[in-house]
Design goal:
Helix content: over 70%
Radius of gyration: 23 Å
Number of strands: 0
Number of domains: 1
Distance between the termini: 44 Å
CATH superfamily: MetI-like
Number of helices: 12
Shape: globular
Order of helices and strands: HHHHHHHHHHHH
CATH architecture: Orthogonal Bundle
Length: 311
């Protein structure tokens, strides 16, 4: 049986969720971003089914997968009725690789964001709440990560970390180079929160530091972290594409992402051979998914910060 206090909390949570959705659905930018994102999520989740549907519509012999080789005669072939976007230099269907590429690109963006948000939140909480020598050390380290350009940092870490190119390595590189701005944001919010009256009341009744951080500080910081994480996902996807394009991402022979599709197209001189769709379609996918997360981030920022709402 659910207790009365639990029922009240669930009803309050339901009420807040409905109010948040009411504000969100009136935000055109947010709804547009959500629509685009849901389309890409559907593409990633139902990639095999989408290829089967396209096979039935176009009358193809088979529903091509991302690593199904058409044959020697189909290498770097122009668009045709059997291959709407053409094939790459290995004989892989570009349309199939574009659809399946949504899976790994979104996976890298989400997991790398969890890593960077977790690390940034931890550093920001430690630095802002306890201060002193911890604050000095952590903020100086954060300043180093903020001052050095992110692309240079990623290249250095991707080169120094052991092991060959892989999805896990790319996630780790993006995660450990993208936490510094989050740490600064969280620290600033914590410095403001720890001076509030409810924190002093918690201290006066004997609450310990870790209890205060867990029960009072972090819940008030989380909405800000959540809104920032949406924007960070977009940056993580863009970072993966950049690393893949310069040859530091997952191998296109083992994993398909939009980034390594662009790398493969560049190495095959697709633009000079008239295979424009090989570059345009994956590039547009990256632009649209980044735009979708950016729109969502701005919409959530408006929801969590009432001062930004239009009167």
């Amino acid at each position: 049986m659910i207790s009365e206090p639990t029922k009240e909390k669930l009803l309050l949570l339901k009420k807040k969720t409905l109010e948040t959705w009411k504000v969100f659905r009136h935000n055109r930018m947010g709804m547009l971003g959500l629509t685009i994102l849901m389309a890409f999520v559907a593409m990633a989740v139902f990639a095999p089914q989408m290829m089967l549907i396209l096979k039935a519509i176009a009358g193809w012999e088979s529903a091509y997968g991302p690593f199904d080789v058409v044959g020697p005669e189909g290498m770097a072939a122009a668009p045709s009725s059997d291959h709407w976007l053409g094939t790459d230099r290995r004989g892989f269907d570009i349309l199939a690789r574009t659809i399946y590429g949504a899976r790994v690109s979104l996976e890298i963006g989400l997991v790398a964001t969890v890593v960077s948000m977790g690390l940034g939140s931890f550093v920001g909480l430690m630095s802002g709440f306890w201060g002193g020598w911890r604050d000095e050390i952590l903020m100086r380290v954060t300043d180093v990560f903020l001052v050095i350009p992110w692309l240079v940092l990623m290249i250095v870490f991707a080169t120094l970390l052991p092991g060959g190119p892989s999805v896990e390595k790319v996630i780790l590189v993006i995660g450990i180079t993208g936490w510094s701005s989050t740490a600064r944001i969280v620290r600033a919010q914590v410095l403001s929160l720890k001076q509030r009256a409810f924190i002093e009341r918690a201290r006066s009744i004997g609450a310990g530091d870790y209890y205060i951080v867990r029960k009072h500080v972090f819940p008030n910081v989380f909405p800000l972290v959540f809104a920032n994480s949406i924007l960070t996902i977009a940056l993580s996807i863009l970072s993966e594409s950049t690393l893949s394009f310069i040859g530091l991402g997952p191998s296109p022979k083992a994993v398909v992402t939009w980034g390594n599709m662009l790398e493969d197209a560049f190495l095959a001189e697709a633009m000079f051979n008239g295979l424009y769709l090989w570059i345009i379609v994956p590039g547009m996918c990256i632009v649209l998914i980044v735009l979708a997360f950016t729109f969502l981030g701005y919409a959530l920022d408006e929801i969590f910060n009432p001062k930004l709402r239009k009167r």
